[in-house]
Amino acid sequence: MPSPAVYRSPRTTATVATVLLVVCGALTVFRLVADVLLYGAAGDLPASVPFGDETAFGAPFALSMLAFLLYYLALAGSAAAFITWFYRVRVNAEVLNHHGHRRGRGWAIGAWFTPVVCLWFPRQIAQDVWQAGARPDAQGVREPLSETVLNLWWVTFWLANILSRIGTQLTDGARYPDDYQQGVVWMIGSDLSELAAAVFAVLMVRKVTAMQEERSAENIARIYGSAVPVAGS
What is the pLDDT of residues 57-108, one digit of tens each? Predict the structure, then answer.
């Protein structure tokens, strides 16, 4: 049996995750600009003449590679921070609402690295954590919360991954500039989806953290009968 869940404030991990997600978003914009320039550079070459290798696109290709490198360095840091926050709020959610969790705590980390189940386990865990932040009424009933932000985050996250894979396959297999341009279009779509995913991830982190802090403060006030200020939902 796992050890009893203990509530700890997720605010520090939320702050770190938010900052790094913002950095990722900024670098995604940089990547987007680089990909747009790369698209233009590919269009400047004769469409029916093989281009040899990507260095034929000149400075825009070098800028794209720099943007790619910086983005993935930031992504590694933001992923580590986000998963640390994700595990913390999953444990906290068990304190706030012991029932209603479809996956064990360990999956809050392991699900991200497990093939196949990574497609839906993290979404289920996030949904259960989200709903655990609802304020129960006098009878302990929790009204379901709107999951719009949560759903938009998950859809844009996977859409960015799918578009990126398609774009990479097309650019890697391209022999002519116009074929390469088609691949870059998919990469631009991935950049836009990635930027949206970063925005929705920040909104989700902030909302879940705020809900857990509020419910925790209310529980303390109820147990000790003290007047604990609680921010509005």
Answer: 899 999 999 999 999 999 999 999 999 999 999 999 999 988 889 999 999 9
Contact yes or no for 5/94 (Cβ under 8 A): yes
3-state secondary structure 133-170: CCCECCCCCECCCCCHHHHHHHHHHHHHHHHHHHHHHH
The answer to whether the beta carbons of residues 80 and 95 sit under 8 Å apart is no
- The helix/strand/coil state of 114 is coil
For the chain, the residue count is 233
User: Cα dihedral sign for 79, 200, 216, 3?
Assistant: negative
**Distance between CA atoms of 5 and 87, rounded to whole angstroms?**
12
Rg (CA), the chain: 22
Query: Rounded distance, CA 12 to CA 147, Å?
Result: 24
Question: Residue 75 to residues 17, 51, 59, 85: CA-CA distances in angstroms?
Answer: 11, 31, 24, 15
How open is the CA angle 159-146-111, to the nearest 5 degrees? 50
